[in-house]
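#struct-help
A.M.: can someone run this one for me? Single chain, 416 residues.
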Amino acid sequence: MSALVEPSPSAPTHRRTDAPVTRAPDAAKSWSSLSVVDEIAALADEWRALEDRALVTPYQAYGWVRPFTDTVGAAERMAFRHAVLRDAGGAALAILPLVITRRSGIRFAEFIGGKHANYHMGIYDPAFAAGLDAAGARLMLAEIGAAIGGLDAFIFVNQPMQWQGVPNPLAQLAGGPSPSGAYKLALVPGDGEGSLRRSMSSHAHKKLKNKRNRFVTYGPSEMVRARTPAEIARVIDAFLRQKAARFAMMGIADPFAPPAVRRFLERGAQAEGDRPPVLELYSLDVAGQSVATYVGAVQAGRFSGMATSFAMDSEVAKTSPGEILLVDLIRLKSREGITVFDLGVGEARYKTTICDERDDLVDSFLPLTARGHAFALFSRAKREAKRRIKASPVALKLAHRVSGWLSRGRKPAADE
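D.P.: on it. Structure tokens below:
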């Protein structure tokens, strides 16, 4: 059964846990107060002040979450609950940006962003995160659940085990590894070429050089970053058109098709005041026409790839323009001082070709009620099955075929 967002009132080894989230008798409480805020705008200054010093992925930055809640969230009538923990002086120690979802009669909380966000995590003061053990993390969730009220479970997927060298507090409660990891490349500022030589094999370099030699025969090209409203609109047009063609060929629903997703990209790519936008949009143009695009999010020296596309109906597609754009973008980000470039969650040949590291991700299924306990068991089993399928090339190929058949089978009903 598909998930219904609750209407708004307006591969390492892990210890598995299905224990209900209750207050542990030996839990040390390292915060003084907790509040739950529905409207993100009320937290703008506090969120950004914490973000400037905190452990935070690009997907929990205010400049990513606010555009998402105002566009996709509003269109789908999502119910948001932002949990804020503060110290005795009232300073924020952590913010957990949550959305309340209903599925099969179960009401649970998860991190905002869904499949549009590669990493799901809270925002933590580094010292607070380092001092929060498993008992403290469990106590924190018990208090958040009580403050929100009526929850059956917390379902947290694709959580990094650590961030910036500090353990992610909620990863201590993981029920198992996520189906996929996230691929990344450490950059040496100012030496993108050296970073690529380190990570890519000589064979991969030779293949890319041959593709680039063929690519230049199609005419003058340039990598364009969209900054003005007109440029942003043009790159988004190309991105959505290319993505639609790709998903149509695969026979599956296009997650970028809803108009609210376009508005999210537009909002996120525009600067707000003196702060640069979190979202960056790039296009590789040949003779003025986009042949590939890249959407990424930037936070604290890290560039996180969200989505990429290429023009399948172009002759240039034979030269892998998406890979050429990616390599050029890595070089650019190295010159700009970015130290980590990640390609997001999921397996793909180009990711393993470019990257030499990965972030291991974990899932947590934490019940608050008896119903939540059964749902957590089901959710964990489903994610484990997905992980096993992805680990088997034969099973993964079969799963893609079945998904395509089912999607094509649903089209007539949708048209009716």
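A.M.: thanks! The radius of gyration is 22 Å.
D.P.: also worth noting: The chain has twelve helices and 18 strands.
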